[in-house]
Amino acid sequence: MPQPELTVREIPATDHLEFVRGRRSVSFLQTPAWGRVKSEWRHESIGFFRDGELAGAGLVLYRQLPRLRRYLAYLPEGPDLDWDDEDLAAWLTPMAAHLKSRGAFGVRMGPPVVTRRWDAATVKAGIADDAVRRLGDLAPTERSSLGARVVSQLTELGWRPQAVEGGFAAGQPQYVFQVPLAGRIEDEVLAGMNQLWRRNIKKAAKEGVETAAYAGTAIEPELKTFHDLYVHTAERDHFTPRPLTYFSTMVEALAAEDPDRIVLHTARHEGTLVAATIAIRVGAHAWYSYGASSTEKREVRGSNAVQWAMIRAAIAAGADVYDLRGITDTLASDDPHLGLIQFKVGTGGEAVEYVGEWDLPLSKPLYKAFDLYMRRRSGGRS
Question: Domain span at residue 14?
Answer without folding.
Answer: 6-110+357-377
